[in-house]
Amino acid sequence: MIRFGSYLQTNWDWRAAGNFMFGGTGSALMLMTALASWPAVPPVPLGLAALAFVGLGLFLVWLEIGRPWRFLHVFFHPQASWMTREGAVASLLFAVALAGVAMQSAVAIACAGALGLVFLYCQGRILRASKGIPAWREPAVLPLIVTTGLTEGTAILIMFAVWLEALRDWHIIALAGLLLLRGIFWTRYRAALECSQAPAGAQQQFRAIHALFLWGGNALPLVLVLVPFAAKLDWLVPLAAALALVAGWHMKFVLVAKAAFVQGYGVGALQRGRPTPRKPVRREGDPWQA
């Protein structure tokens, strides 16, 4: 297969990438906060931090709109647009989370956590629905986006837990498991792109960050987060969380802003020699047949 005419799209830039980076982190943090605090109410700063991340991501998308004051149009097509569904879920997320904080309701916070997971899923489906971008439409991008967001949310939860001296063993186990899954899904995603012959520009961008993301952003934090169990080096845990967080943001920035090459055109493998002539197909009733 020979491909040509592929180029980097310019409609979505660093601001769109910021929505996937910070919005995914905040929605996952809301979920992990609800899980970590149940059946009690989580610390207010932690819930507000989750909403702040989501709000920052949506604000960056708002800046990217050519006519920012027409942002309400995004809510007009929920039956066909995952971006519309993301906006609707975000509105519910803010309303339910703020109500839960105001009323100190663990049930409302739990509902907000579930909405955070739905928001994260919508982000993966937004990329999946972009059929003209091979790096986004690949089915393997959905579990990669979801696990990356969950890893980032768990990393920030751990940083808060260390600061509040409330770190639990299951926090570390959750981060370790998510890092392992993220590494697996990243490897599968790259293999799927190569199998589908994605544009060379996209594969080049991923090839450039592969070692840094897989080993520096997943394997190294996995080792650092498990060492304290044996060596009692608790200061390694927030370091591992910070590495996991930054690596996830970097990968999503490259995915959205640098590896988004359009499909282009493809020509199949050419065969040598002259084409074999075939007899014309004669159908009953053709005028020339008589």
Report on the structure:
The mean pLDDT is 84. Helix 3 (82-103) runs antiparallel to helix 4 and helix 4 (106-128) runs antiparallel to helix 6. The chain has helices spanning 14-37, 44-64, 82-103, 106-128, 134-137, 141-163, 169-195, 200-231, 236-258, and strands spanning 2-4, 265-267. With 290 residues, the protein is mainly α. The protein contains nine helices and two strands, in the order E-H-H-H-H-H-H-H-H-H-E. The chain is 69% helix and 2% strand. The longest helix has 32 residues, at 200-231. The protein has a single domain, classed as Up-down Bundle (Formate dehydrogenase/DMSO reductase fold), CATH 1.20.1630. Strands 1-2 form a two-stranded antiparallel sheet. The radius of gyration is 23 Å and the shape is globular.
